[in-house]
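Students often ask why inverse folding is considered easier than folding. One informal answer: many sequences map to the same fold, so there is more than one right answer. In these notes we will look at a single instance of the problem. The structure comes first.
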């Protein structure tokens, strides 16, 4: 056969449209902005922030039936925060812009066996500390979401090097590169386990459902073996919530961080939240008390360890409200939070930190 004819045939074949198959996906996301007033007892500031309780983001999600009862899927989500509400400092002179950061970049396969996820995503204990059936969580849930990076100030206006977030932890899991397995639900019970870098292991059991006509319940217990990457060796968290059919809900949590280094002591916290939902409105109040959170050689007095460092703890009180416009996907919210540093030495004279914020989250798809 003539070489020119062969070349023409190959070129024509390559030019033909090829059948393309790909997982179909949907896009969605939201923008969340707020105005936050912060006061550390010495200075006050008005800040324009991204609401970290549900940060500005966009996502692509898709699934495909691949036969034999199996489904494959993807979840790709990016966060775009400018001046995060949990990262600002007092009297900062410019906005902090985190740019793009990855929340999820994972693939998964599911079927009768459960679900296996690989990549950047929720570890096994992500959400273990936040069983919550109240819709005001944007304003009232995680104490460090608003003003978590503001430092306590001591006598003479001297920053103490301890932030509001340092002493009000949740010990919750997070998002990281991992492999995760979720069991099929057995009635109201489900289990998740993950493995991540540095041999980190996270396991969570969840029991959730309806309690007849009385209401809904959600109970979670998580255990995390942190591996070699942190000073905290392992963590256990228990949280639970019950929402009565008329809209009132109560939630609580307890967590303990084990520190096995010589002389170190375990950290611990307690949390309680009371809320009510009616129509498109939600309100809530919460309180957290945490002990032995920050070890310092100067200024902290609780349980001085063998290195001479004492521990400081802290408390937090919050109140807030959310109004949701369901059709356009808009949330309007406002809240107030007070932080107190505990177990400090005489003469430190620390002031409380408080913040008031108003904001809105608008969704798109």
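Output (designed amino acids):
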């Amino acid at each position: 056969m003539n070489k020119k004819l062969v070349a023409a045939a190959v070129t024509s074949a390559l030019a033909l449209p090829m059948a393309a198959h790909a997982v179909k996906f949907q896009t969605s996301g939201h923008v969340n902005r707020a105005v936050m007033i912060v006061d550390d007892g010495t200075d006050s500031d008005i800040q324009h922030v991204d609401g970290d309780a549900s940060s500005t983001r966009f996502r692509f999600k898709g699934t495909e039936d691949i036969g034999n009862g199996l489904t494959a899927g993807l979840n790709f989500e990016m966060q775009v925060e400018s001046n995060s509400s949990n990262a600002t400092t007092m009297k900062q002179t410019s906005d902090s812009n985190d740019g793009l950061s990855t929340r999820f970049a994972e693939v998964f396969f599911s079927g009768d066996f459960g679900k296996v996820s690989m990549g950047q995503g929720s570890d096994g204990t992500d959400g273990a500390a936040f069983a919550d059936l109240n819709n005001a969580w944007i304003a009232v849930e995680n104490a460090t979401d608003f003003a978590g990076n503001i430092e306590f100030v001591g006598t003479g206006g001297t920053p103490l090097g301890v932030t509001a977030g340092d002493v009000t932890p949740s010990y919750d899991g997070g998002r990281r590169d991992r492999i995760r397995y979720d069991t099929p639900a057995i009635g109201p019970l489900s289990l998740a386990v993950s493995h991540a870098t540095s041999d980190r292991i996270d396991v969570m059991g969840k029991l959730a459902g309806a309690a007849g006509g009385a209401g809904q319940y959600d109970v979670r217990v998580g255990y995390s073996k942190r591996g070699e990457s942190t000073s905290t060796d392992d963590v256990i968290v228990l949280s639970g919530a019950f929402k009565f059919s008329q809209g009132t809900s109560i939630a609580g949590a307890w967590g303990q961080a084990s520190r096995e280094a010589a002389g170190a002591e375990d950290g611990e916290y307690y949390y309680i939240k009371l809320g009510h939902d009616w129509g498109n409105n939600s309100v809530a109040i919460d309180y957290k008390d945490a002990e032995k959170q920050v070890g310092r050689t100067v200024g902290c007095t609780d349980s001085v360890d063998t290195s001479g460092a004492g521990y400081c703890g802290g408390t937090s009180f919050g109140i807030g409200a959310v109004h949701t416009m369901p059709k356009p996907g808009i949330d309007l919210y406002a809240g107030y939070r007070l932080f107190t540093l505990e177990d400090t030495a005489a003469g430190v004279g620390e002031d409380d930190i408080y913040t008031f914020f108003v904001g809105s989250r608008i969704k798109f798809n």
